[in-house]
Amino acid sequence: MWLLTALLLWVLAGAQADLTKAVITLQPPWVSVFQEENITLWCEGPHLPGNSSTRWFLNGTAFQTLTPRYRIAAASVSDTGEYRCQTGLSVPSDPVRLEIHRDWLLLQVQSRVFTEGEPLTLRCHGWKNKPVYNVVFYQNDKAFKFSPQNSEFTILKTSLSHNGIYHCSGMGRHRYTSPGVSITVKELFLAPVLKASLSLPLLEGHLVNLSCETKLLLQRPGLQLYFSFYTGSKTLMSRNTSSGYQILTAKREDSGLYWCEATTEDGSIVKRSPELELQVLGLQTPTPVWFHILFYLAVGMVFLVDTILCMIIHKELQKQKQWNLEISLGSGPKKNVTSYLQEDRYLEEELKCQEPEQLQERIHQKSLEGGQQ
Ligand SMILES: *[C@@H]1O[C@H](CO)[C@@H](O)[C@H](O)[C@H]1NC(C)=O
Ligand SMILES: *[C@@H]1O[C@H](CO)[C@@H](O)[C@H](O)[C@H]1NC(C)=O
Ligand SMILES: *[C@@H]1O[C@H](CO)[C@@H](O)[C@H](O)[C@H]1NC(C)=O
Ligand SMILES: *[C@@H]1O[C@H](CO)[C@@H](O)[C@H](O)[C@H]1NC(C)=O
Ligand SMILES: *[C@@H]1O[C@H](CO)[C@@H](O)[C@H](O)[C@H]1NC(C)=O
Questions:
Q1: I want to staple 332 with a disulfide (CB 3.0 to 4.6 A). Which of 139, 199, 270, 328 is the partner?
Q2: If you average pLDDT over residues 44-73, what whole number do you get?
Q3: Residue 317 and residue 52: Cα distance in Å, rounded?
């Protein structure tokens, strides 16, 4: 017996850890109805085995009913209030505020609070279900939709711009106007911002991490965001769970405007980042091929001319040396001969490093001097 109790407690404790929230659904789905209309509340949530007992609360106080279905027949003002429910293995549901009205016209909605991306249906409903024509829907007293026949209008994807107070007017026997309903649209995540891992501008050849940064504002179990990266008309990465994209080696052609998108799995919310300008600088300015070819040709020519001139001058010098020697041996003093020879040798040394033009000049002068003497 003791063991059985312990086992039961352990099972209960285990279940407690992942208790889900019960959920109330309405039938018909509207959170406000006219007096004398019928409405049924359903409670969904996990039950204890063999016990479908459900607890209901109105304005925080439990009341008798133990079935998952709570029916209000011919609603009265006293049924107005905040309803919650709880099943055996759930925590109490979020409250549903039910309003019972006495009027000619009623703007009905399925909920007063939405998460962006969810649809919002507005129903301009007449007392005793009387048909209503030429319906006008208003947001913050500004008409935004005229509907001659249909008294229902659906905003397919709500966004923050749909926050406000709504009402409707329509023709029955007269033109009637409904009371206002306050609608709140909550943001699920912030619009992303695209960031680069390196400060801009960047140099060619570097690795760049781009990240699509956003922030979740509401807790949603199992919520998964998907990220896409774009540049120009190109998609770099499409719908990936990773919020990062790598440019392995940045090239000058990678320069341009980049942006990213964050979306929910069903695509009901798509948010785009502002553009980020990526500028990739080259390491050096490239020179055209023809420039290289011309440059090496010119260097080659200079070298060739240089060599030929050198050979010619060398031969000339050899001849001159012999000639000088013959003259001085014949008539001049010995001192002169040695000095000439020394100068010539000096000239030959210089030949190795002098510019051809300068050399030519020097040699020309020398030979003139030699001739004069
Ligand atoms: C509410 O339900 C009852 C039957 O339970 C029905 O007779 C009555 O017409 C319904 N009222 C409305 C407004 O639909
Ligand atoms: C529940 O509270 C609302 C105000 O929050 C009140 O108008 C309503 O009468 C209450 N309902 C009951 C049954 O006490
Ligand atoms: C079902 O569970 C509730 C508590 O959630 C309890 O009060 C009730 O006695 C249980 N009924 C049965 C038949 O076990
Ligand atoms: C880029 O991201 C990778 C991992 O995704 C990381 O290893 C690397 O250090 C990052 N580089 C820079 C420059 O931030
Ligand atoms: C998502 O990104 C990761 C790394 O950034 C990559 O390995 C993976 O292949 C991508 N998946 C798809 C479907 O593109």
A1: 328
A2: 90
A3: 124
Residue 108 pLDDT exceeds 80: yes
pTM here?
0.69
Q: Which of 36, 38, 69, 100 to mutate to test the pocket of ligand 1 (most atoms within 8 A of CB)?
A: 38
Q: Respond yes or no on whether the N-terminal peptide bond of residue 92 is cis (omega within 30° of 0).
A: no
Residues contacting ligand 4 via CB (< 6 Å): 197, 207, 209, 244
CB distance 37 to ligand 1 below 6 Å: yes
Spatial contact of 268 and 189, defined as CB atoms under 8 Å apart = no
Classify the C-alpha dihedral 339-343-344-345 as positive or negative.
Answer: positive
**Please, what is the Cα angle at 36 between 34 and 42, to 5 degrees?**
80
DSSP 95-122: PEEEEEE-SSEEEE-S-SEEETTS-EEE
Whether the CB of 40 sits within 6 Å of ligand 1: no
245 within 8 A of 194, measured Cβ to Cβ = no
- For residue 225, pLDDT beyond 70: yes
Residue with tokens 């925590």: 91
* Ligand 3 centre distance from Cα of residue 95 (Å): 23
Alpha-carbon gap, residue 151 to 147, rounded angstroms: 7
Specify the residue for token string 């553009």.
Answer: 275
Instruction: Please write the tens of the pLDDT for every residue from 72-83.
Output: 999 999 999 999
Q: What is the DSSP string of 125-136?
A: EEGGG---EEEE
- CA of 330: how far to CAs of 168, 193, 278, 325, in Å? 134, 99, 86, 8
Instruction: For residue 258, give the nearest of 229, 226, 280, 237 by alpha carbon.
Output: 229
CA 81 to ligand 2 centroid distance, Å? 5
Ligand 1 centroid–CA 74 distance in Å is: 7
- Alpha carbon of residue 19 to chain centroid: 36
Contacts of 212 (CB under 8 A, 6+ apart): 192, 193, 194, 227, 229, 243, 244, 245, 260, 261, 262, 273
